[in-house]
Amino acid sequence: MSRNTDARPAEQKIAQANRAAREHLPFDDTQDLEDARRGFLGTASENVIRAEDGSAVWDLGAYGFLSQDCPDTVNPSLWRQSRLVADHGLFEVVEGIYQVRGFDLSNMTLVEGERGVLVIDPLVCAGTAAAALALYRAHRGDRPVTGVLYTHSHVDHFGGVRGVVADEDVAAGLPILAPEGFLEHAVSENVYAGTAMSRRAAYMYGAALPKGERGQVGAGLGQTVSTGAVGLIPPTLDITRTGQTETVDGIRMVFQLTPGTEAPAELNIHFPDLRALCMAENATHNLHNLLTLRGAEVRDPRVWARYLTEAIDLFTDSSDVAFASHHWPVWGQDRVQRFLSEQRDLYAYLHDQTLRMLNQGMTALEIAERMEMPPALERAWHTHGYYGSVSHNTKAVYQRYLGWFDGNPAHLWEHPPAEASSRYVEFMGGADEVLRRARQSFEAGDFRWVVQVVNHVIFADPDNAPARELQADAFEQLGYGSENGTWRNFYLSGALELRHGSVGTPTATASPDVLAALTLDQLYDSLAIRVNGPRAWDADITVLFRIRGGDPVTLRLHNGVLTHTTGTGPSAGRPDLEIALDEPALRALLLGSVGPGELLERKDVEVTGEATLLANLLGHLGAPDPDFAVVTP
Prior knowledge:
- This protein is of the alpha+beta class.
- It is built from 22 helices and 21 strands.
- The strands form four sheets. It has an eight-stranded mixed β-sheet, with helices on one face. Strands 11-12-13-14-15-16 form a six-stranded mixed β-sheet, covered by helices on one side. The protein has a five-stranded mixed β-sheet with strand order 19-18-17-20-21.
- Strand 6 and strand 7 form a beta hairpin.
- The chain starts with 11 loop residues before the first helix and ends in a 15-residue tail after the last helix.
- The mean pLDDT is 95.
């Protein structure tokens, strides 16, 4: 079943823990199995979905092994969730609302209007989105797309838009709806820290892991992310307030804005004529992230819970089904209300209890270890931590309120990892002695301690082969026991890289479409974070760009800082170089598609001053590393 030939079997302690989970978890509750298959209309005839260039971006058959019994190398709760999420095809939610599930990390929802169909959340890439739309049309007719709606600002909810519509459609009047602030957050998240987030996302989704019982089995929220190019067409209509009503192609929608919940810009949608409620990603069949392992802004569980209460009050009396941008729907008014109430209590409990323990002086690590969820929530499958976890969510709440420092001055000025590790290993009697004792801990099943202590050997001596192998073995066992799909993927990806070296980062979210959507202010900011500060300490360069049809902007590199000033006021200073040009030419320069020499030779660019200063200025910019080390220094 597994193609991971390096992977070891489950150790006895992990196998026993996984078998015990089968006994105490409510596997006799089969409601989710019925709901996940309800309304099935069919699926694609070909397993492999390809991009326009013929490259494979998704394999519908990759998770066929999940139809077998759960092995000892996978937590049975995660196996159950992955089996449900991997189910793929077109499903009827209610008459007039359909979902394509299992074609990417997220769902595509299609709502039929008077002339065509409204597409909600067009997946990650154009290839999977086009395949999803083709499947819908195969069963429901060749209806034109008459509108697109992005529920929020994460890439799996807009990246495939070019698979369902083109720029010409939008220019002809096709509306694209999104919550207020969508574009700002969609592009800034994927550019400012985009390189680091993409690198960590490769671990989070297990992109390089083989699919199978000893490899990647899913990510809880969905199976993984597709590997095609990310697109973005900016919205044409912003949703700016709760209660706002819009009609697209005869489809009446009432919106609830939920900023600061699962995304900085997000909304829920009620379809009053269909008695259906779309919860975007605010209520899904798992505990979500308050701080995703790939990195993001910390989300606010207090606000999240309040918006869920508001949704209950606004919509449940007139909703017979609730569906979301991941997982499967919940049918029945009473069940919808109970589902949303339990989801609300989940985030409120994590927030309130973390604050209670925090105010008793506990640290983030202590709170995470002591947090216990109410039995009623534990009995509900949809509250389990397949994607977020109780452990890292409580740490996120702590970080939101108190930051990284736990108040102990011993932690105020610690040595960085490599330097500290060298000292630890010396104190502990050398690498051989650390590994001897760590192997004893491994045999005893204390894998958490093994990875903690052997990490010091690796960071003191990255080429220590026995340490790398022991660490990989311990990572593997922790992955096998994880109910959380992203924890499993992180552990197993770490093991893979320790054994074989870096496996790269397959998906870059800072795509040309995303970069093109940056405002000029965001583009200047994205350059500022690339300045190699120490190398630029002595530089003092001021360039004034006179943008035809726009405001002039001054870029100044001084004290290792690149600042930008709109206009020509005192803060702009006296320019060393003035360049008159059109905005597209400036964008091409700043995005690197045109070099400074090529730009300055263009006839439509006017230059006053020392032209070589432009190349000098841009020469102080460094390039991010999309393949930086994670489990080694």
